[in-house]
Amino acid sequence: MSEELIPETPEQETEENEAAEPIKQRKNGLYPGVSDELAENMKSGWADTELRDLEPIAQAGHTAARRAALSARFPGERLVIPAGNLKTRSNDTEYAFRASTEYAYLTGDQTQDGVLVLEPSGESGHEATIYLLPRSDRENGEFWLDGQGELWVGRRHSLTEAEQLLGIPAKDVRELAAALAEATGPVRAVRGHDASIEAALTDKVTAERDEELRVHLSEARLVKDAFEIAELQKACDATARGFEDVVKSLDKAEATSERFIEGTFFLRARVEGNDIGYGSICAAGPHATTLHWVRNDGAVRAGELLLLDAGVETNELYTADVTRTLPINGTFSPVQRKIYDAVYEAQEAGIAAVKPGAAYRDFHDAAQRVLAEKLVEWGLLGDLSVDKVLELGLQRRWTLHGTGHMLGMDVHDCAVARTETYVDSTLEPGVCLTVEPGLYFQADDLTVPEEYRGIGVRIEDDILVTEDGNRNLSDKLPRQADEVEAWMAQLKG
Ligand code: GLY
Ligand code: MN
Ligand code: MN
Questions:
Q1: Which residues cross the membrane (predicted)?
Q2: What pLDDT is attached to residue 380?
Q3: Does the CB atom of residue 413 touch ligand 1 within 6 A?
Q4: What's the alpha-carbon Rg for the chain, to the nearest Å?
Q5: Which numbered ligand comes closest to the C-alpha of 323?
Q6: Which of 167, 247, 311, 342 could form a disulfide with 320 if both were Cys (CB 3.0 to 4.6 A apart)?
């Protein structure tokens, strides 16, 4: 028998409401004193806005299956998965909230401070409960006098509405920490999202056991279900439109800076999705050789290349991760094209190696071999053979990073999956990864011809493993050099 964490009889709920302290004045004095008359006035005269007979969210069936897999992995243990809290940016302003991947994956919900609890129940199963802040109490004034009140932050779902939408019984999160502190039996929690939940569990959990839970939730996401694949396609399509926006406004970027590119793409991400999935890399000229150039404060000059690495995150929190390297004036110079074509050829080899049954490492090895061949052909590695270069890894002075990674709700998805389930694994249908070779010649690299210096090229696409090969989810954006030029000419008009 599982213990009930929270008592839920109607009598007790009523007693709690009656016992609640009225809120009349904020302690920081931001609001003037509230007269008894005003406090009384604000209690009533509000319509019943409860929504009834709501349809479940589109992914409710998928989240139920994901919770069932989690339940089967940890029988008899209480599992606690928080959404996380707002993070302070400065003083009393916060960063935009983004629910933890683990919580959103298992619930389809994105409410700040929410917590999913799976309680052991029956022989080997679990009962799920989602703990949320309910609608604001009007009797005690919290809805208009408390900073978390709905008058300040917007309407929330009632617990009943949340239950209908998510298909998970819902309870008041304000009572969860105390209940967890008193609960007995084995428990695991996903760490790093909610300090109050961790504090309540501090003497009940161990880092090692919690890490096993985190690893399971990372590995569970290696193979995407149909809902997730559709979301990734949506993210790639919106990202393609964001890249088009950027090309159309390159003249404005030339008149200002890389920031114009960052802002242009961000507008598309916010209009079509939740956000950008990671800081956009808007790297013009030599900035393209800095792998994570996100300062984006440099000049955009005709004749140079723009390396744009950006992805829209959908409203359900799936992100694209796409890079195109574009000639700012619309035409590659001969040396730019020579380096671009080498990277394109490497990417083609990498994409061709993505298929069911292939080793995960194959696409990396295929792309690196092409790049090593080019570097040898160009005379940058003396008279070493390609095999010797690869054995010693000498090409990496200019290729710098791995050729790709899993993609999903996190841009570097499944990041704590074990080596045997990720880099040492075999690809299967439903895996989604990036293929993103690059060549980067630093502006101060004296080992390469002067004309190469300051050129960085990466081409990155999002590739889904299918039953018979792969599908490029980001193929709405051209990659081949002539096609890139034609596409830019058409957009620039
Ligand atoms: N945008 C980071 C990456 O491509 O992995
Ligand atoms: Mn990227
Ligand atoms: Mn990437």
A1: none
A2: 98
A3: no
A4: 27
A5: 2
A6: 311
Average pLDDT, the chain: 94
Task: Read off the tokens for 25.
Answer: 């004045």
pLDDT digits (tens, 9 = 90+) for 105-119: 999 999 999 999 999
- If one residue of 239, 291, 293, 323 were mutated to test the ligand 1 pocket, choosing by the most ligand atoms within 8 A of its CB, it would be 323
pLDDT digit string, tens, across residues 360-385: 999 999 999 999 999 999 999 999 99
Q: What is the pLDDT of residue 124?
A: 75
**Candidate from 145-159, 219-233, 408-422 with smallest mean pLDDT:** 145-159
Distance from Cα 321 to the centre of ligand 3, integer Å? 5
What is the distance between the alpha carbons of residues 233 and 476, in angstroms, rounded to a whole number? Answer: 11
pTM of the model: 0.94
427 C-alpha to ligand 3 centroid (Å):
18
Q: Which atom of ligand 1 is nearest to the CA of 309?
A: 1
Q: What is the pLDDT of residue 123?
A: 77
Q: Does residue 272 surpass a pLDDT of 60?
A: yes
The response to whether residue 321 sits with its C-beta less than 6 Å from ligand 1 reads yes
73, amino acid identity:
R
Is 362 touching ligand 1 by the criterion CB < 6 Å? no
Among residues of the chain, what percentage have pLDDT more than 90?
A: 88
Q: Is 402 in the pocket of ligand 1 (CB under 6 A)?
A: no
Phi and psi, residue 99, nearest 5°? -60, 150
Distance CA 242, CA 399 (A): 27
Q: How far is CA 88 from CA 93, 95, 274, 277, in A?
A: 6, 6, 20, 20
- Ligand 2 centroid from CA 239, angstroms: 12
Find the ligand nearest to 279 CA.
Answer: 1
- Residue 309 beta carbon below 6 angstroms from any ligand 1 atom: yes
